[in-house]
Amino acid sequence: MILLLSISLLLLLILTVRLSAFVSLIITALFAGLAAGMPPGELIRSVQTGLGNTLGGLALVLALGIILGSMLSETGAIRVISSRLLSLLGRNNAGTALMLTGFVVGLALFYNAGFVVLAPLVFSVAAQTGLPLAPLAISMAAPLSVTHGFLPPHPGATAVANALGADPGKTLLWGLAAGIPVLAVTALIMPRLMRTVKANPPASFTQAAEITDNGLAVPGFTKSLLIALMPVILMGVSSAAAFLIDAGDPLLEWIRFAGDPGNSLLAAVLCALLFLGSNRFQNSTDRLSTSQLFEKSGVALGAASTLLLVTAAGGAFKQVLTDSGVGNTVAELFSGVNAPPLLLGWAIATTLRIAIGSATIAGMTAAGIALPVMQSTGASPELMTLAIGAGSLMCSHLNDTGFWMFREWFGLSLKDTFRSWTLMETLVGTLGIIAVLILDTLI
Length: 443
Hints:
mainly alpha
């Protein structure tokens, strides 16, 4: 009952009172703790612990990810990757080129930031190829959703993995195994069924997309791609090394150090500074200087502070649910349900997603509820992370900012937004949990 009342209060504060998600989550966390009988001092410590633990595991990843994404965008690296893939794959495979570009960008950036970076590319590709805009938009948006739900070092997946105590490297490997088939369906097959969806984007967006050259030299394709994928490569090597090197070998410890999500992103940022911008190692005056890159990425970092605070507040709510015993009570109720624990975690996240709208809040809240279920059943924390990530993407509708961004940016009717965006998100979530359940039987 406390859980139901808390979620109801959260919905009331966000949807009716129109408070910010951060303030609403903190108020809801305090309400849940007091209603469960936690002493005030213990409740405050629980909120502070939740905030601190979430920020400790996520702040570095989010900050460095935003800096890396800004550098890739400002130096033209993202445009280089997209253009080369388009030329290699051909006009008829423009959706594949956008999917691969979206996958690379989505690993480091939150959905909203990645969308803003990539949406102009969709207009540009549509103008170059003459292909319908809406299918290309889905090919771009689907990988942003898949990386959000399934793949560290994306901040969303990393936050849930940290909350559940999942190994980020293993989560990445299993996430790739589950996410690639999902991506093939939602980004390649589904767009072919959407050619009748009419897009009528604002003229200012299409005109802005025509400006593709800022007069600066752009980096090469191989260099751009390797820097963008460096975090994934380092994390993948770290996870693979655990199977190939003895546990007591000091080399394994150093490889794990390099494969930490924060450190791998830091390495990519340093490489971007050295090889994408102008510096004393490169006597180039036709590129942005390192100071200019830092200045531009700092603006993007400031704009992302709200996302970090909301995620941290979700961690506080999760911690209160755990410390107050509410999560254990829910786990006991679910223990009698004849359903796989991973499916329960997905269902909890799906319910919260439909009710709240925010995938990040749904994922973090579901992690707090599902944690005792996972611990009592022995479910894999990595697979539970993926199950919750899949559920947090389900059934996006009118209370989700992503729904409105997609509709307004590409000029779709409400009906066509449901036919395209909502259907895509629901397919990602549904196919995602199916893939996770299959992995559970194989691992």
